Amino acid sequence: MSTPQGARARARIEVTAAIKEAARRQLAEEGAAKLSLRAVARELGMVSSALYRYFPSRDELLTALIIDAYDSLGEAAEKARDAGSGAAPVDRWTAVCEAVRGWALAHPHEYALIYGSPVPGYSAPETTIRAAARVGLVLIGIVRDAHEGPGLADLPLPAELRPEGERMVAAFAPDLPPEVAVALVAAWAQLFGLVGFELFGQFNNVVDDRETFFRHAVTGLAHSVGLR
Amino acid sequence: MSTPQGARARARIEVTAAIKEAARRQLAEEGAAKLSLRAVARELGMVSSALYRYFPSRDELLTALIIDAYDSLGEAAEKARDAGSGAAPVDRWTAVCEAVRGWALAHPHEYALIYGSPVPGYSAPETTIRAAARVGLVLIGIVRDAHEGPGLADLPLPAELRPEGERMVAAFAPDLPPEVAVALVAAWAQLFGLVGFELFGQFNNVVDDRETFFRHAVTGLAHSVGLR
DNA sequence: GTCTATAACGAGATAGAC
DNA sequence: GTCTATCTCGTTATAGAC
Description:
The structure is a homodimer of 228-residue chains.
Chain A: H1 2-30, H2 37-44, H3 58-83, H4 89-106, H5 108-115, H6 129-132, H7 134-148, H8 162-172, H9 178-199, H10 210-224
Chain A binds a DNA duplex (18 and 18 nucleotides) through residues 8, 11-12, 15, 36-39, 46-50, 52-53, 57-58.
């Protein structure tokens, strides 16, 4: 009773992985908008209707790819955070940022899937939120460690933004001052501005030594959230 | 001899505009990856082969849309710059940033076309560079004015980035110190990180009062390039 | 129960002959 | 410019193998 069920479950996992792998290849060649179940099935030597045993619709397959991409990126960020657990906060921050950039350069199409243009006709379900939050949580953690340890630099917060900051603290950044939470969200978005510009070609003829430039820029971001 | 030729030229301009308008509608509904000359022709009641009189290929139509989008955004930025010609540099900076955000919110699909994921199989020609540079040039101009007027704050520049900074100054930011040029490019990318995150939904459940948040964040960017 | 294959639908794109 | 024959797509219903 144990082996057949185990074998079935294993086979199911393997086929599911093969489908996603083929879909990722398609993503690279045709883009998310043109991801087609039939093409995926063809590549696997299956018939299209068989895929519906594994993914109830094309959109669910897309969702799985999106969650995988967020998780893969989040894992890279968490690894970088853990690798530098003894280092200074600024260095841990830049290490995480460099991990994000490294992952993006290594997986440009999956990066485009999660941080690029929305796929027309597709709307990401709530299920993606948890995975999407991972990088942000890593950055929050580093700043919280610094806040509880060496301390943070003072940051300004206009009165009109205080309610927003309080809300952010309550929602996802407990123990942090509201002005830091606001600065963190801004730095988080700005980090992906840097990565996206490099990846999508806006830095062509503008930035040459991108690695050095990036390190310097994200050091500035670290300062903008109070790390020193 | 004058009227018929003038009428022909006028008709050509009008049809060209109608084609681009229909193509922009398609962009909104299906995305750039699925932009098809046939569908555009259908919408206009023309036959697809007739479109080739106006655009020699789908890619050329895409290029025209891209240039139009960059120009429309650039014009919005330039208008904001000119409207606040007497104001303090920081205020001119934020006004331009807000114009960029406003344009993006008003033209989300054109924004996705120029700053979102690259279109698979399409590679933008050199012709787009001039239009793509307009927003950056506006930002450079504001910082240069401040540099020649009230002056800029001191910025750090690691030795390893100095060559890059010198190159940037020579290429597109004459009269500016290299550390300012480097900071400007970073701020430019980060600005679009903020805009893109809001537009593409990353701020859902994260930032509530986006207008206030944005103003505060780009004020920080202004400081990061030395404005005060 | 779990899976795959066949066949079909309605809609849309595409290529070529005319 | 028009028509037609032949592709693609996502999705479903159904039947049969394991």
